[in-house]
Structure to design on (415 residues):
C-alpha cells in the first residue's frame, strides 16, 4: 500500500548540482509539465489500476534497488529506497525527482519499509552514458549510502535536501581523487629508481623484470588446446603479413642494388632476425618486419659504394656493426629515456618523408617500365604509320587545273 502521501517532492535537472542557494532555489522553481499518462505506460504494467490507491513491485515494469553481499547472511536487499526510470520522446533534458515518505511504507516483497523513491525521466534519443538508466544508477549509488539517507531524513526543506545530495556527490568524487593519487604514489614508489646511477642499470632492471616470466612466454602458447589454436592462427596471420612485405621490398632492393640483395636474401634475413629476436628479445608482441626506410638506406649505401669504388657488402656490414655498437651504448646509458620528449609531429614528418620518397620511386619505376615495354613498340608503330602516310601522299594524283576545279565545284553545288 502507498500509505501516506510524500512529504516532499523535488524536481531537478541533471546539470543543476551546485551548492549555492540561488542555484537550489532555481532548481525548486523548475516545473516540468509531464502528464501521468505519458509515464504510466513506461513504468507500470497493464494490470496496475490507479483507482485502487495501491502499488506493489509486481506492478512495476523496471525498478532499481541496491543489494549488499554479506559473507554470513548472503545477499541482503536494501529496502529503504527504490528507483524508477523511463524515457520519453518529447523532453530534451533529464528530470530527476525525489520523494520522501512520512513513514516507512510497504511496497511488496523485498521493499517492506521504503522511505525514499527516485524517479528519473530521460530523453529517448540520448547517448548510452547519459540515458535514464545510467542516471538512475548514479543517484542510486548515492542513495545506497546510509549516512546520506540519514541526512535526507533530517532535512527540513528543499535546500537542505538538495545540499546534502550535492555535498555527498562531491565527497565521493574527492575520495576517488584521493584514492587515485595514493595509487599513483604507490606505483611510483614501486617503480622508483635507485638514486645511484650506474652503467647498464636499465638492462639489469629489464632482465630482472622479464626473467620470472620468460618461461611462461613460451609455455602459455601451448598450455591447452585453446592456447595452441590461438598460437597457430597468429602464426598463419603473421606469415601472410610478413612474407608479402618481404617480397615487395626484396624486389625493390634487388633493383636498387643490382641484384646484390634480392628477395631470397631479404626473406632469409627476415627469418634469422625474427627468430633471434623472438628467443632473446623478451617482447612477444613486437613483430620484426623489414620497412621502406631500410630499403631507402640500402639504396643510399649502394650509391656511395658505387661512387667510391668500395665493395658494397663491406660497407653494408661495417655500417651494420657500427649500428650494433651504437645501440649497445644507447642501452647501457639508457638513452631511450630521451624518447619521452619526442612529439607526434616528428613521427608524422618522418612518415611524410618516407611516403614522398616511395611515391617518387614508384613514378620512376613506372616510367622505366613504360620506356622499356611500351615506348619502343609505340615509336616503331609511329615510324611505320608515318612512312605509310608518306607513301600514300606520294602516290596521290596531281591536282586538277584551276578552271576544272571551278567546274567541279559548280557541278557539286548544283547537285
Amino acid at each position: 500500500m502507498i500509505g501516506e502521501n510524500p512529504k516532499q517532492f523535488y524536481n531537478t535537472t541533471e546539470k543543476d548540482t551546485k551548492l549555492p542557494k540561488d542555484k537550489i532555489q532555481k532548481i525548486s522553481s523548475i516545473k516540468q509539465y509531464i502528464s501521468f499518462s505519458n509515464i504510466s505506460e513506461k513504468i507500470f504494467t497493464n494490470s496496475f489500476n490507479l483507482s485502487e490507491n495501491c502499488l506493489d513491485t509486481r506492478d512495476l515494469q523496471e525498478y532499481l534497488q541496491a543489494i549488499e553481499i554479506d559473507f554470513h547472511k548472503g545477499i541482503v536487499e536494501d529496502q529503504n529506497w527504490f528507483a524508477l526510470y523511463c524515457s520519453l520522446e518529447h523532453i530534451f533534458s533529464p528530470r530527476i525527482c525525489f520523494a520522501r515518505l512520512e513513514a516507512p511504507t510497504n511496497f511488496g516483497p523485498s521493499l517492506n519499509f521504503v522511505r525514499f523513491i527516485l524517479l528519473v525521466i530521460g530523453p529517448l534519443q540520448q547517448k548510452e552514458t547519459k540515458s535514464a538508466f545510467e542516471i538512475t544508477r548514479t543517484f542510486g549509488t548515492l542513495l545506497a549510502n546510509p549516512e546520506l539517507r540519514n541526512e535526507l531524513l533530517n532535512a527540513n526543506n528543499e535546500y537542505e535536501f538538495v545540499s546534502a545530495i550535492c555535498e555527498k556527490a562531491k565527497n565521493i568524487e574527492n575520495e576517488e581523487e584521493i584514492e587515485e593519487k595514493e595509487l599513483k604514489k604507490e606505483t611510483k614508489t614501486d617503480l622508483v629508481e635507485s638514486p645511484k646511477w650506474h652503467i647498464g642499470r636499465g638492462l639489469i632492471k629489464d632482465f630482472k623484470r622479464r626473467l620470472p616470466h620468460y618461461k611462461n612466454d613460451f609455455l602459455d602458447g601451448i598450455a591447452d588446446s585453446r592456447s595452441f589454436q590461438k598460437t597457430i592462427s597468429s602464426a598463419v596471420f603473421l606469415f601472410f603479413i610478413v612474407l608479402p612485405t618481404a617480397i615487395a621490398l626484396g624486389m625493390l632492393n634487388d633493383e636498387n642494388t643490382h641484384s646484390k640483395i634480392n628477395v631470397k636474401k631479404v626473406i632469409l634475413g627476415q627469418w634469422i632476425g625474427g627468430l633471434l629476436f623472438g628467443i632473446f628479445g623478451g617482447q612477444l608482441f613486437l613483430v620484426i618486419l623489414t620497412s621502406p626506410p631500410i630499403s631507402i638506406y640500402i639504396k643510399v649505401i649502394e650509391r656511395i659504394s658505387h661512387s667510391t669504388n668500395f665493395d658494397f657488402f663491406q660497407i653494408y656490414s661495417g655500417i651494420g656493426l657500427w649500428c650494433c655498437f651504437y645501440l649497445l651504448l644507447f642501452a647501457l646509458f639508457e638513452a631511450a629515456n630521451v624518447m619521452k620528449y619526442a612529439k607526434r609531429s616528428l613521427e608524422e614528418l618522418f612518415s611524410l618523408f618516407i611516403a614522398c620518397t616511395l611515391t617518387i620511386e614508384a613514378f620512376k619505376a613506372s616510367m622505366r617500365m613504360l620506356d622499356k615495354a611500351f615506348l619502343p613498340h609505340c615509336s616503331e608503330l609511329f615510324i611505320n604509320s608515318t612512312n605509310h602516310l608518306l607513301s600514300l601522299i606520294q602516290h596521290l594524283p596531281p591536282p586538277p587545273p584551276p578552271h576544272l576545279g571551278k567546274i567541279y565545284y559548280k557541278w557539286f553545288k548544283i547537285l
Remarks:
- The beta strands are 6-13, 63-64, 67-70, 74-77, 81-88, 95-105, 114-123.
- Residues 1-19, 23-30, 408-415 have pLDDT under 50 and may be disordered.
